[in-house]
Amino acid sequence: MGRFFHKYHLLSFSVSIQAYLFSTFINSTAAKLNFTFTQIGLINLVASFVYALASITIGHSGYKYGYKKTMSLLFAYLLFVSFYGLAVRTPYALTLFAILQGAFFGSFFPQVEGLIAKSESTLGIDPPSITGRFTLSWSTGNIIGVTFGPYLTVRLSYIIFMIGLILSSCSAILITKDGRKSGDVIVFKPAHKLTEHTYNSSIVNDSKLMRKLRLEYRIILFLGGLVYTSVMADFPKLILLAGLNLDKAGFLIVGANIGVFLTFVLLQSWKGWVGNEKICALLLSVVPATGILAIFAKSPLPFFITALFAGFSYAVPYTFAIFYGLLSETEAHGKQGALHEMVIGMLFGVGPFLGGLLLDRFNGNTGLVVYALAISLAIYSIQLFFNKFYVLKSQN
């Protein structure tokens, strides 16, 4: 296992657990405080704006000042955020906490993305293996965070912040020591399998096609992610309204993160989708399927299955976007990572906000159905544009 993953994958895994412990704390606490769907969407929108802003400002500073040095400083900041979280009791305090934690995660993930991409590319690791192993590390962490976040919020919320205090202090110390010992690179001896190319290199070497695919799937990632983020934010209240216990909500919502993980495993082991727009279009059918399934989300199993497909809706275009986005020149890794995280940050706010408006307007599940089907129409329109009109424009 040590020849395939290294300690910065473990760091990504650990921070992702904390990210989803915090996000489920925010959404579950909002449900407990009787926020409307629109108000839940607003608090997520504010936090995501900060996340996106941090991504495109602080997010690529690691390239200039050192990824490890920047991460050490960010963990010192997370220590403060975790202390503050222990005192959150009111809607205003919850909103401020959402802002503070959004700034950390928006700044952190581009650093670890850039460090991994920079270091592993110099070791000759196959680019899909770079992105694939990174996405598996954080998606596994998400499953744990989402599963236990609502339960801990209702029963033992202080544990969420104690974990944050331990993670931030230990990480700051260990990264600082590693930076002094190894410099701003990851010391890692990869397995031979990681250096084998398993994709159509002629597509990746076509710079014009890569720019087209990168832009196309960043837009589609944003659209597909709107469904996923709306489910993540609004399901605690939907579950509560269905008469189910809020402390068990994580065991249903985690279906979304299991869907993300399963998609990453499949699409990283099978590369038939690379450059094949017909297969990509077929895979994107999980978005309208989520809308259809949402009709039946009234009891535990349908809630879990709807969440599972919402995870597919996010992970399919995410895999496409990060593959094409991070397959770039070494000096662009930090920039591409920051742009990628900016998109992620925006959809984690816009999705819950628009979803909240529709769920309030159509009284819950019907709003989610309308939302998913409208987004599906937009996704296929975007794909049609890029494969017909955009190509023609580029050739003229």
From TrEMBL:
GO CC entries:
plasma membrane
The primary location reported for this protein is membrane
- Membrane-topology annotation of the record: Multi-pass membrane protein
Q: Where in the cell is it found?
A: Cell membrane
State which residue ranges cross the membrane: 12-31, 37-58, 158-176, 219-243, 249-267, 279-297, 303-327, 339-359, 365-386
SUPFAM superfamilies xrefs: MFS general substrate transporter
Q: What is this protein called?
A: Major Facilitator Superfamily protein
Species of provenance: Fervidobacterium gondwanense DSM 13020
